[in-house]
Amino acid sequence: MEIKKVGVLGCGLMGSGIAQVCATAGFDVISLEIEQKYIDKGFAGIRKSLDKFSAKGTLKEPVDQIVARLKGTTRKEDLANCDIIIEAIIENLDEKRKIFASIDPIVKADAIFASNTSSISITETMTATKRPDRFVGLHFFNPVPLMKLVEVIRTIATSNDVYETVYEFGKKLGKSPVRTSDQTGFIVNRLLVPYLLDAVRAYEEGVGSISDIDAAMKLGCGYPMGPFTLLDFVGLDTTYYITDVMFDEFKEKRFASPSLLKRMVMAGWYGKKNGKGFYDWSNPENPLPQDAALRGLAK
Ligand code: CAA
């Protein structure tokens, strides 16, 4: 089957990034949100990002032409003739099951459903619909317009045709897709999450300061960001949620949240998105490590 029209559920950080790469690749895109204000915010971010690419001369078309392929809606009925639906709403199984169940009778029967979840079971989400053979995971990475990877996840019920169609779709988006199966965390988070949690445990044990641990991994291993910058970037709340799902699945300490991470999330320190995490992001050009404030919690 040919994919021409893409529906994206949610227009937050990930949803808007997904909508952007789909429109840039030439697909017609319709983004569903619960209120128009979220569409406006997401689309403003898309324009800003496209303007950056345009200034660098990396776009094949003028920004306006790409933006013209993007539509926003608050009505599920407008998704009816999409060829693929990519869900990027809140990381909550019940909410994901609810939205897929509600659009299942609306969207044409041969459309493919995909979830951008980072850790929730694709199989468990899929069972809320009557199209298990046409259901996959399609996991993008933040920031979506820059990160080259997309994980394409199959369940035991996914049909081969659907899986290969989505794999090829990932390539058409300019991404490098990798194949994986529906196991908690897939490839990247299975390996990345224990590393990030170990960084927090090392910090709790006094191995080094926030900026020294970050510098060590950046300069010693060639990582683009140190673990604490990355944690703030991904979101401490998001990471904490992922640990919850992964620990529940594997019952292994390496997937369990260190107490400092839990306490930071309880205190509302979610990272860059709301200004404070392992760094204070009041001035994003010069994030300030929060060792002094966290010392009381860390010891
Ligand atoms: N759109 C367009 N351009 C953007 C942009 C965006 N959204 N974000 C940044 N840029 C541009 C910047 O303006 C900058 O342009 P100039 O070179 O002209 O200044 C350029 O991209 C590079 O950005 P920066 O200078 O800010 O920093 P950088 O070189 O470190 O690159 C990065 C930024 C690509 C994010 C890099 O730091 C990186 O790869 N970090 C790791 C990110 C990562 O690991 N992501 C995965 C997280 S895990 C996840 O998402 C999954 C999950 O399930 C939790």
What count of helical segments does DSSP give? Answer: 12
Looking at this structure, what is the CATH superfamily of the largest domain? NAD(P)-binding Rossmann-like Domain
Q: Estimate the mean pLDDT confidence.
A: 96
Overall strand count: 10
What is the strand arrangement across the widest sheet?
Answer: 3-2-1-4-5-6-7-8
SSE order, one letter for each helix or strand: EHEHHEEHEHEEHEHHHHHEEH
Q: Which small-molecule species are bound to the chains here?
A: acetoacetyl-coenzyme A
Total domains, how many? 2
At the first level of CATH, what is the class of the largest domain? Alpha Beta
Brief descriptors of the model:
single chain, 299 residues, alpha/beta, Rossmann fold, N-(1-d-carboxylethyl)-l-norvaline Dehydrogenase, domain 2, 8-stranded mixed sheet, two-stranded antiparallel ribbon, binds acetoacetyl-coenzyme A
